[in-house]
């Protein structure tokens, strides 16, 4: 056997197909159909061999254990240790919501950058490698910036990262520490996103959520795959997830559907519920209107990670919600801060603002009767609370300061 | 002077390679109609057969999303810059 035949085959990306007009195209760092400008999705070989439960269970604990549903042929080479975050049973939260059972899909401890964006970047950076790109980048509200910077650093790639000027301190520091080229743009996320579409077009970099988007988005499906496996190869009745661009909702549906089609689980796709902050809730309002065109909004919320006023996947997310029998809810900034606090107090999980939105929206959905005692609910908590300390700091009780004397402790105990 | 229209490179195949073209009109819709008349292959990629914008294709007038300015009814004048960008989400 020659050396060449022993080595793993080089990683190649799958071809693409337009979600709108169906036109197929060769693998490329392109997210836009050349025929109609619709979004592209990777095409999988329907004849490919799929693993059974035991094979998957025997693989390393990362999102690559589901690699047959990720858009490559050959072995991935980068970011091999991302994914397979804990699914945490939260009985106190179930009592608070008045539902049968609650689990938290805890991507606050995602590796390496403490948000679910590690999943999409792990996939996108392998696409960049397959296309021979040496520079990647993103438009981001913060979590994606952290993820692109971290994954690029250890892969030895250059990263250009564009964020709105107004962003939480931790998200700025947690990006520039990796040595990336961080650029703050005067404007909203939607302004940054538009700029990055032009940057990708002009410079040919791999902007993960622009021209690598077709591949990038597939990483989100692994949240659904992991929920199914971690529940013992079955599905919950409902899933609540935050919505920014709306992609996660559509990919949850796709991921659950893939495992049903593969015979790995028997249930139907869970009812999908979307959560947004009321200061930026274009997808919730689209769901409440019952259809039609998405109306973009100018974001006004402390939940910057969900502050996308013009979500391109919003229409697809609304459809996924409607067709699975779910619904959507928007919560105020005060409610999302409360949500952060009782998520921490009930489940021991400190989430960033998007997690507070998800928790508070779940409570609103339960109170309105859309989630009930018969439900088993998974909440997707997608980023760590240390990233958005500003949101919750002033809402917490003051901490007593004492001299190092026992009687002062005793006085506090007696209060 | 006229209205300048910036196109993504994916559409330049329909303009003989030009990514920046000029257009005339009093509204964005008229400017798009002018472009469609001069570049017949480009027209159906910018608007549907009823002359309405597609949900996937965003138009920016001097860097502002035209949906905040009345869409294709937004008034335009000489010197304005229109940028066509396919809708892409992020986060």
Topology readout:
The complex is a heterodimer of chains A (about 425) and B (about 90).
Chain A: H1 3-6, E1 12-13, E2 16-18, E3 24-25, E4 40-42, H2 53-57, E5 72-73, E6 87-89, H3 91-97, E7 101-106, H4 117-130, E8 135-139, H5 143-155, E9 158-164, H6 169-176, E10 181-185, H7 189-203, E11 206-207, H8 213-216, H9 221-230, E12 238-242, H10 247-261, E13 271-277, H11 282-289, H12 314-323, E14 328-331, H13 333-347, H14 353-367, E15 376-381, H15 389-393, H16 406-414
Parallel strand pairs in A: 7-15, 8-9, 8-11, 9-10, 12-13, 12-15, 13-14
Antiparallel strand pairs in A: 1-5, 2-3, 2-4, 6-7
Chain B: E1 3-6, E2 20-23, H1 28-38, H2 43-46, E3 57-61, E4 64-65, E5 81-86
Task: Please sum up the structure shown.
The complex is a heterodimer of chains A (415) and B (91). With 415 residues, chain A is of the alpha/beta class.
Give the overall pLDDT of chain A as a whole number: 95
Oligomer: heterodimer
**Largest beta sheet of chain A, briefly?**
6 strands, mixed
Outline the biggest β-sheet of chain B: 5 strands, mixed
CATH homologous superfamily classification of chain B: Beta-grasp domain
What's the number of structural domains of chain B? 1
If you had to describe this structure to a student in words, what would you say it looks like?
The complex is a heterodimer of chains A (415) and B (91). Chain A is of the alpha/beta class and 415 residues long. Chain A has 3 domains: 3-62, no CATH class; 87-113 and 220-393, Rossmann fold; 117-216, Rossmann fold. Helices cover 38% and strands 15% of the residues of chain A. Chain A contains 16 helices and 15 strands. Chain A has helices at 3-6, 53-57, 91-97, 117-130, 143-155, 169-176, 189-203, 213-216, 221-230, 247-261, 282-289, 314-323, 333-347, 353-367, 389-393, 406-414; strands spanning 12-13, 16-18, 24-25, 40-42, 72-73, 87-89, 101-106, 135-139, 158-164, 181-185, 206-207, 238-242, 271-277, 328-331, 376-381. Chain A has a 6-stranded mixed sheet, sandwiched between helices. A 4-stranded parallel sheet of chain A has the order 10-9-8-11, with helices on both faces. Chain A has a 3-stranded antiparallel sheet with strand order 3-2-4. In chain A, a hairpin with a 5-residue loop joins strand 2 (16-18) and strand 3. The longest helix of chain A is centred in the middle third of the chain and has 15 residues, at 189-203. Chain B is 16% helix and 23% strand. By secondary structure, chain B is of the alpha+beta class. Chain B has one domain: Beta-grasp domain (Ubiquitin-like (UB roll)). Chain B contains 2 helices and 5 strands, in the order ββααβββ. Chain B has a 5-stranded mixed sheet with strand order 2-1-5-3-4, with helices on one face. The mean pLDDT of chain B is 90. In chain B, a hairpin with a 2-residue loop joins strand 3 and strand 4 (64-65). Chain A binds chain B through residues 20, 30-32, 34-39, 117, 138-141, 143-144, 189-191, 193-194, 196-198, 201, 209-210, 213, 244-247, 293-296, 298, 305-306, 308, 310-315, and chain B through 8-11, 13, 45, 54-58, 60, 63, 65, 67-68, 83, 85-91.
């Amino acid at each position: 056997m020659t050396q060449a035949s022993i080595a793993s085959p080089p990683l190649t990306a799958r071809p693409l197909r337009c979600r709108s007009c169906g036109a197929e195209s060769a693998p490329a760092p392109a997210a836009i159909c050349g025929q109609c400008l619709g979004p592209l999705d990777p095409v999988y070989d329907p004849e490919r061999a799929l693993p059974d439960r035991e094979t998957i269970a025997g693989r390393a604990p990362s999102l690559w254990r589901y690699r047959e549903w990720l858009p490559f042929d050959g072995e991935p080479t980068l970011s091999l240790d991302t994914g397979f975050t804990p699914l945490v049973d939260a009985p106190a939260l179930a009592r608070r919501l008045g539902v049968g059972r609650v689990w938290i899909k805890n991507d606050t401890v995602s590796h390496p950058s403490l948000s679910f964006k590690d999943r999409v970047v792990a996939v996108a950076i392998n696409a960049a490698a397959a296309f021979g790109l040496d520079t990647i980048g993103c438009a981001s509200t913060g979590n994606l910036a952290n993820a692109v910077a971290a994954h690029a650093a250890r892969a030895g790639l250059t990263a250009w990262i564009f964020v709105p000027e107004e962003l939480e301190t931790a998200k700025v520091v947690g990006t520039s520490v990796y040595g990336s080229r961080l650029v703050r743009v005067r404007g909203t996320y939607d302004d940054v996103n538009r700029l990055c579409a032009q940057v990708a077009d002009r410079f040919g970099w791999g902007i993960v959520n622009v021209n690598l988007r077709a591949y990038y988005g597939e990483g989100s499906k692994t949240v659904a795959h992991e929920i199914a496996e971690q529940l013992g190869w079955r599905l919950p009745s409902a899933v609540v997830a935050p919505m920014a661009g709306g992609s996660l909702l559509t990919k949850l549906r796709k991921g659950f559907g893939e495992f049903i089609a593969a015979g790995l689980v028997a249930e139907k796709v869970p009812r999908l519920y979307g959560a947004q902050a009321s200061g930026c809730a274009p997808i919730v309002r689209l769901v409440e209107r019952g259809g039609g065109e998405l109306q973009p909004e100018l974001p006004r919320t402390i939940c910057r990670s969900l502050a996308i006023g013009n979500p391109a996947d919003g229409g697809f997310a609304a459809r996924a919600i409607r067709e699975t029998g779910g619904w959507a809810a928007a919560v105020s900034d005060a409610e999302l801060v409360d949500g952060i606090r009782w998520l921490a107090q009930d489940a021991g999980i400190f989430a960033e603002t998007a997690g507070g939105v998800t928790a508070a929206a779940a409570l609103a959905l339960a109170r309105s009767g859309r989630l009930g005692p018969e439900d088993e609910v998974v909440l997707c908590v997608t980023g760590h609370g240390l990233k958005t300390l500003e949101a919750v700091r002033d809402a917490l009780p003051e901490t007593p300061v004492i001299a190092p004397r026992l009687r002062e402790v005793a006085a506090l105990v007696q209060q | 002077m006229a209205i300048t229209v910036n196109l993504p490179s994916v559409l330049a195949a329909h303009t003989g390679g030009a990514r920046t073209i000029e257009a005339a009109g009093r509204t964005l819709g008229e400017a798009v109609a002018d472009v469609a008349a001069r570049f017949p292959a480009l027209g159906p990629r910018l608007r549907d057969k009823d002359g309405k914008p597609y949900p996937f294709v965003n138009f920016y007038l001097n860097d502002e999303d035209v949906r905040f300015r009345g869409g294709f009814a937004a008034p335009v004048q000489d010197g304005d810059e229109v940028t066509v960008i396919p809708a892409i989400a992020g986060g």
